[in-house]
Amino acid sequence: MLSRHGTGRASGRESAADRAFRAEVRDWLETNLTGEFADARGLGGPGREHEAFDVRLAWERHMAAAGWTCLGWPVEYGGRGATVAQQVIFHEEYALARAPARVGHIGENLLGPTIIAFGTDAQRARFLPPIAAAEELWCQGYSEPNAGSDLAGVRTRAELVDGEWRVTGQKVWTSLAAEADWCFALCRTEPGSARHAGLSYLLVPMRQDGVEVRPIVQMTGTSEFNEVFFDGARTDAANIVGAPGDGWRIAMATLGFERGVATLGQQVGFRRELEGVVELARRTGAVDDPLLRDRLVRAWMGLEIMRLNAVRTMAGVAGDLARPPGSGRAPDAPGPESSISKLVWATWHRELGELAMDVLGAAGLVADAEPYELNEWQRLFLFSRADTIYAGSNEIQRNIIAERVLGLPREPKGTA
């Protein structure tokens, strides 16, 4: 299924320029995935972010030096101004080469597009180059213990004192916080405000007194997720994206980017996992079971539909990023429709984990080694249970789609 000739994407339907770009990407990866980088092939990703992190960071910087990060960003901001087709090609070839999982995706795919769309010229000059160079890593400070899917309930507060924002509160489920240099955090900056009002989008340095990161051990035994405690943490007054109180609008745009452009890179890992499950079914003989074979086919169909939807969404985002920045309005593409993407991929990936365990059969119930050494399929099953919860639970996504896309009546509030 994942081949250069069986997908129709490396076929004569590509333009001559795109075929040349594909060859350039493929040749560069083959030439550069050598030595320690070759040993990191296939490492990393959800549930496995602990694998060879330092080598993967070095690989990210190696890519950056050669101009292979931030492909879709405009050239003037350190990107390549790549077309949607070229970005798709890059992700496909990256997956085919089994290159290491990226470590800078939060900055590149979430914060970067947000700064391009809403930031000041000074913010673009300060924050975009280190992201493109993989010199600064980012995490996302949204969820809190009592404000996960209900993001409007955040309580972390920030006040402006002597030219600095001072941040106090707690964030949770913060991916890669232990490795991050910076956090973009949604904070309540207007005392007495409630829900969507009075929120601001702040850029906060992680490596300072007043910031404590506590890893959360997951079912996989790893700790990509973290608790982050802010106790008077400081950031410059200029490190606010948009105006004070405008944080909700900007935070929603960031989520739109997360559910649009970023999902395409995510799907290359999904495709690799599906290929592995198919091969596992062949080895175990599970492919001869007509019910499992039907589920494998449906998984492939679901992934193709997911990809086409992501490309459609990505085309809108790419066109939006090409507009002059600073218009003060949210991008068109990352609207409520992007919740469809989140709902689809989260459900699909969770079901893939379940399918992998069914293909393994009884052997899937036994750890590979003591004390708790899991194989890749057990990790996939356990970690993907979180997919339908983080970045907006399935229930919340369905409400958004119903109310804001389909125009159905809003869910009654406060009636319990």
Automatic annotation (TrEMBL):
Alphabetical list of Gene3D superfamilies matching this protein: Acyl-CoA dehydrogenase/oxidase, N-terminal domain (1.10.540.10), Butyryl-CoA Dehydrogenase, subunit A, domain 2 (2.40.110.10), Butyryl-CoA Dehydrogenase, subunit A, domain 3 (1.20.140.10)
Cofactors, names only: FAD
Domain Acyl-CoA oxidase/dehydrogenase middle residues, every copy: 139-231
Respond yes or no to whether keyword Nuclease is given for this record. no
Any Pfam family matching the protein:
Acyl-CoA_dh_1
Q: Which GO terms describe its cellular component?
A: plasma membrane
Looking at the record, the residues that make up the Acyl-CoA dehydrogenase/oxidase N-terminal domain are 17-135
Q: What is this protein called?
A: Acyl-CoA dehydrogenase
Q: Which organism is it from?
A: Actinomadura rubrobrunea
